[in-house]
Give the backbone structure.
Amino acid sequence: SQQGEEDPQALSIQEGENATMNCSYKTSINNLQWYRQNSGRGLVHLILIRSNEREKHSGRLRVTLDTSKKSSSLLITASRAADTASYFCATDAASSYKLIFGSGTRLLVRP
Amino acid sequence: DGGITQSPKYLFRKEGQNVTLSCEQNLNHDAMYWYRQDPGQGLRLIYYSQIVNDFQKGDIAEGYSVSREKKESFPLTVTSAQKNPTAFYLCASSAGTGDEKLFFGSGTQLSVL
């Protein structure tokens, strides 16, 4: 079963523009994480935001969490061609340590 | 270098054959996981293990088996009962306290001949 669902499924932007991806989930969570996957590779952890946090920054990444709407967003500022990848949100249900991944947003940054 | 090693990178299975995917970690992590990824899709949990000699079924365990005899190793066997095994398989580990990020291997692409 999918806990998180990303929106949009695909996003194409010009280098230098900002990219925003959204994630919605269904049940209460302990934390929400964002991961990046280059084609044919494993996932790499980007950022974790806990259920009692509303916003978190890491370099060019900004993540927000709205637990009342059960949603999160990932903003990548000043995008680069090297940011081209798929981005996944992952949530753990409050009663479980298992991480459930969404279907991902495929980001293409055009040079 | 610390990390997770998956092998082989590519694997082909014949009809009726069992195949085993290897996953080894030297991060001293307690928890290990196996995920399946189909093209253009997210990850689905097959099995996970929070400690040596213990493991639990995930959402799509049918047709798969695992063992956790050593802390650093968590092999996945795709049995002949798995009728649609073609997928990208990802192994991951975490410290296991329930609030930790996952570290992933580079994956194994399994195809049916």
Chain B has no helices and eleven strands. The radius of gyration of chain B is 13 Å.
